[in-house]
Amino acid sequence: MRLNDLLGWRVIDGAGTTIGGVADVRLVQDGPVLASMQSALRVDGLIVVEHHTTRLFGYERHVGPALLRWLVHRRLGEVWYLPWNEVDDLTDGTVTTGTHRADLKRHEEMARY
Amino acid sequence: MTMAGRVLHAQLHLLDRQLIDQADGHLLGKVDDVELDLDSDPPVVSALFSGRERIPAQQIAEIDTAVKVVNQGLDLEHHDDWTERHIIDKIPGAGDATE
Amino acid sequence: MKKVLGVALGILTAIGGFVDIGDLVTNALVGARFGMRMAWVVVVGVIGICLYAEMSGRVVALSGRPVFDLIRERLGRRTGLVTLVASFLVTLLTLIAEIGGVALAFELASGVNYLLWMPLVALAVWLVIWRVKFSRLEQVFGLLGLLLIVFAVALFKLGPDWGQLVHQATNPHPVGHESWATYTYYAIALFGAAMTPYEVFFFSSGGVEEKWSRDDLVTARTNVFVGFPLGGLLSLAIAGCAAVLFLPAGIQVGTLGQVTLPVAVAFGKIGLAIVLIGVFAATFGAALETVLSCGYTIAQYRGWQWGKFVRPREASRFHVIMIVCLAIAVLTLLTAVDPVKVTEYSVVFAAMALPLTYLPILIVANDPDYVGRHTNGRVLNFFGLIYLGLLVVASVAAIPLMILTRAGQ
User: Which residue of B has its CA nearest to C130?
Assistant: First the structure.
């Protein structure tokens, strides 16, 4: 699957409630070792934002002047992390998860490196 | 060089980054798309795309503020070579260093 | 001497922002109509471009990424393309004006019509791009452009009423039959010119051309803090001369000949010769700056090999872009359009390009992935944000004011 296709897909929980849209894919470099003697980039989970997806600020690392960050976060709404093993299905622009919206982990609680 | 456990974000750290030839530092294009193999176990990034050219993940050498790749079996400089042969090489001094 | 040559990049960059052909005429025009009542705008512009050029210089020294790489990375493909189109058009229109400007300087010196000089000028610009090393190009045209300092000397020689000039500078408002609308229009035009996007494109790409690394942070900063204030000083001197000579007589300025007149009045033929060489170097330098920036922006947006640090054949598409731009410039000027007027239209595109160019710089200058521990401090971010706000306001106001005042008439 291509990243550009996946970005912006709607994320709904088991009850059919819309959680938000796919803003990014979290990768961890601990997959199988490749021919280049490096570990592959493993798909670890999705980053889901409540309202709009914007790429400008690196929402997950809180970079930039405070006023700009505040403006962007108001626009984004909540930013969640959806682990890959909680993704049930990916079809037709929709990601389905069994996890309830209230049980999702906030992205800011994730380790940055 | 291993960077096990390093966290990256596909859009933020890969998409639209500069591609650089690991061997000679030449600029090769931008990362226009990222291919995710979601059916493998575990799911991984399987390739990068620049224009129509597919760069397999095995050929990614380094990911920093630019992405360095092993430029083997790839045809990333096709258009530049065409322009070079048909236009620039016809002008005297095209192969000389500036003074 | 080595120290002087080391800041040539900053000086040449600043020439494109403060004393290129459009600015030369605008500075004199503003001086003739408003005296020094517009001087504060130049000061505000110098501070703004210093802030953002420093950030882009720091990013390039620490990460090797020039400004249009950052724009593409942060704004993505689509918004990046909008920024590319707008800023490319600003740069191309300015290039057209500069080629005409160099030709006008030759017309003033020789009496031969500028349309005949113009193709030769374009050819000369291309030859320099094709054959001359980047460091030599910036040194020759940057330093020769400094001959415009003769405007400052002329100002002293003209023996103005300094109290009067200071009075004007400290009373920033329109007088006589000038309205607030025209005053604001020219304030925005001067501010936009001071922060014109190709300055940061050229400056940051120049950093790559000169192979800046972590050790060159000081060089980058020196270039910024010497180059741009010097450009602003030249700009003020030109306005000052016009304020002394033309304002009391109520003469309107619209041609390059009138711009150079105060120096001729002060120093006669020798003065005129010096100022013409200065104008030639400044406009030719600005032509190099803009044509290179045309190539830099497109190549960096697409990721193509660019730069004069490789042989032309290795960056073939980069060189083709510049050849095409020069050809477009010649064809446009052949329609006998007034080169000075061309820059006025660039205001429209600049309005769109300015905020989109500076926002990614501000964000990346805060990102440890690029600059490590050298991220912006709080004070820098505070002023960076203020200027971003100013740019947005100027952008929104520019086009309505242009229509309202019929481009400042």
Answer: B98
Q: What percent of chain A shows pLDDT beyond 70?
A: 88
- pLDDT digit string, tens, across residues A15-44: 889 999 999 999 999 888 887 768 899 999
Residue A55 binned pLDDT confidence (cut-offs 50, 70, 90): low
* Chain B residues in contact with chain A using a Cβ-Cβ cutoff of 8 Å: 1-12, 14-15, 33-38, 42-45, 49, 57-61, 70
pLDDT at C345: 77
Chain C residue with CA closest to A54: the answer is C75
Contact check, Cβ <8 Å, C313/B66: no
Phi and psi torsions of B29, nearest 5° = 135, -170
Tokens of residue C31, six digits:
């001086």
Which stretches of chain A are DSSP H helices?
3-6, 66-76
Count structural domains, chain C.
1
C-alpha closest to that of A78 among A20, A10, A31 = A20
Q: Give the right CATH number for B10-90 from 2.30.30.240, 3.90.1720.10, 3.60.110.10, 3.40.50.1970.
A: 2.30.30.240
Q: Minimum mean pLDDT among A67-76, A78-87, C50-59, C152-161: which range?
A: A67-76
b/e burial code for range C101-134 (CB count within 10 A of at least 16 → b): bbbbbbbbeeeeebeebbbebbeebbebbbbbeb
Q: Tell whether C362 is within 8 A of chain A (Cβ).
A: yes
User: Domains (ranges, CATH) in chain A?
Assistant: 3-109 (2.30.30.240)
Candidate from A24, A40, A55 with C-beta closest to B57: A40
Q: What tens digit of pLDDT does each residue of C24-49 get?
A: 999 999 999 999 999 999 999 999 99
Q: What is the pLDDT of residues B31-73, one digit of tens each?
A: 999 999 999 989 999 999 999 999 999 999 999 999 999 999 8
| Inter-chain residue contact B80 with C370, CB threshold 8 Å | no
Which chain A residues are Cβ-neighbours of B45 within 8 angstroms? 27, 40-41, 43
From the list C133, C315, C370, the residue facing B99 with the nearest CB is C133
Interface check C52 vs B, CB under 8 A? no
Q: Which residue has the tokens 């990222």?
A: B34
Count helices and strands (H / E) in chain C: 17, 0
Kindly indicate whether the ipTM for this predicted assembly is greater than 0.90, answering yes or no: yes
What are the residue ranges spanned by the domains of chain B? 10-90
CATH code for the domain in which residue C366 is found: 1.20.1740.10
Q: Over the range A71-108, which residues count as b (16 or more CB within 10 Å of their CB) and which as e?
A: ebbeebebbbbbeeebbeeeeeeebebebebeebeebe
What does the pLDDT look like over C323-343, one tens digit per residue?
A: 999 999 999 999 989 888 888
Q: Is residue C409 part of a domain?
A: no
Residues 6 or more apart in contact with residue C93 via CB below 8 angstroms:
C342, C343, C345, C346, C349
* Burial tier of C406 (Cβ tally within 10 Å: 0-12, 13-18, 19+): exposed
The amino acid occupying position C334 is L
> Cα torsion at A31, A33, A34, A39 (round to 10°)?
50
Amino acid identity at C195: M
Give the minimum alpha-carbon distance from A64 to chain B in angstroms, rounded to a whole number.
15
CA dihedral C186, C149, C43, C355 (to 10 degrees): 60
Taking the model in full, what pTM does it have?
0.94
